[in-house]
Amino acid sequence: MEQTNKKKIPEKKIERLPLFLNNTEIAKETIEFLQNSIQINTTNPPGNEIALARFIQEKFENENNPRIKTKLIETRPSRGNLIVTVEGADPKNNPIWGFASHLDVVPVSEDEHWDHPPFSGELVQLEHDQFIWGRGAFDMKQIGVAHAMGLIVLLREGFQPRGTIKLIYEADEERGGEEGMAILMEEYWDDMKVDYLITEGGGYKLPTGRDFAIQTGEKGKCQTLIRATGVAGHGSTPDPYEKFAIYKIVKILEKIRKKKRKIYMLKEYKQLIDAASLPTLLKILLKRKRMVRKILSLASKLTHEPFDKFFIPMLTDTIAPTIIRAGNKVNVISPTAELSLDIRVLPGHDREFIYNKLEKIIGKKLFRELELESIDYALATTSPINTILYDKIQATLEEMYPGANLVPILDTGGSDMKHLRKKDIPCYGFSLLLKDPDLTYDDLVGMSHAPNERISVTNLMLATEFTYRLMKKL
Ligand SMILES: [Zn+2]
């Protein structure tokens, strides 16, 4: 392979080990490993992660290293999970370090356009870099491959960590982990047991300069279906509109649209602002409840970076109407109408809190007429930032990117970390990632679950090198 990163600006600032550059033997092996992983279709449902779990197990077994122990766990038929354990030299005095990645991917829908087939794992040359193409290239087979290759290279060098390292490859994350991580945590704790965990959800460079996001918490979900009832009848002789179930839903939608979302200055947000490399005055303004909206929208306009889109969900509970359903005949007034709301909640806000809020938005009278059905419910979870793993991630990052800075973020989506945080295990989302010159910041943030999902060879190798360097400190 040719050297393809001559023109890459951000990389000049990065301290790279020659071993992990894009044109090395290790890079070739890593790329192939990811291509093969993408070619094993683990679309969830049904997942069928067992095929990929076996493939990764084989990769480790081929190392012929007695220090490597692997265990395949089928949490449900064909839902394969793999745990790779390398025992530490001094396990009594050191924690067990977990590196987790999910094996499943989200479906590719028929109307998506892909420039290269989604399960091809094709290596494609764009202007500045080569990209590995396919569903899971970004979310998150590349991290699983980076974890494996980082560890494999260390073991080939004869390295033994002080604490035990476990790589965990789990099924069913994309559908909440109920058939994967939830079962591993409940029924396979002896195999699963870790003291700290690192996985997906952060590691990317923020538009604020030398800041890198680390996921230290994720918002909760309170997805709800609202059912309204009203008059039935023939379309030719309508009752007053107020009695229509459909109009009740329309009214609710309008009220949600008009309601300004309340800002909550939580400690997670303040922690983030404190850590970011922003001018002091700006930090003060960003922590003022009344100013924050204006400041963020101004910052977005001036920099053309999506500051508001990024920060506002960390300050508010969000309500997104996503599905409306009513009626099935043009001449019949439907006596029921349904609205689904994707509600994402901040730490400390539970269902009761959210439903009280909905009552205020909709109005008591109408609210009492409605039927509410909880579809998916999970509280927000967070991890502290004063831990040894957090410090080691910071130290590793600084080694590669002098002057870099970790910024703890509250993720708006959910991950398998929620299952571990229930047991108070500190979990962080971090896998090093730079903005590729071939992509916009928005492209990168929206890469998960998108058509033309891909990862650059540079980012794949950066993640691998980061894992290698971090594991060396464990
Ligand atoms: Zn993911």
Number of strands: 18
The CATH C-level name of the largest domain is Alpha Beta
Gross geometry: globular
Average pLDDT number? 93
Task: Just name the CATH architecture of the largest domain.
Answer: 3-Layer(aba) Sandwich
Structural class: alpha+beta
Count of discrete alpha- or pi-helical segments spanning 4 or more residues:
16
CATH topology of the largest domain: Aminopeptidase
* Name of the CATH homologous superfamily of the largest domain: Zn peptidases
Radius of gyration over alpha carbons?
24 Å
Summarize it.
This protein has 474 residues and is α+β, with helices and mostly antiparallel strands.
Write the layout of secondary structure elements.
Blueprint (H helix, E strand, L loop, with lengths): L24 H15 L10 H12 L6 E9 L2 E8 L10 E6 L20 E3 L4 E4 L7 H16 L8 E6 L10 H7 L1 H4 L3 E4 L11 E8 L1 E10 L3 E2 L10 H14 L8 H9 L4 H7 L5 H12 L3 H9 L2 E9 L5 E2 L2 E10 L5 H12 L1 H6 L1 E8 L2 E2 L5 H13 L4 E7 L5 H5 L5 E3 L11 H5 L8 E3 H15 L3
Parallel strand pairs: 3-6, 3-7, 7-17, 8-16
Antiparallel strand pairs: 1-2, 2-6, 4-5, 5-18, 8-15, 9-13, 9-14, 10-12, 11-13
Helix pairs in contact: 1-3, 3-16, 9-10
The structure holds zinc ion (ZN).
Zinc ion binds next to loops.
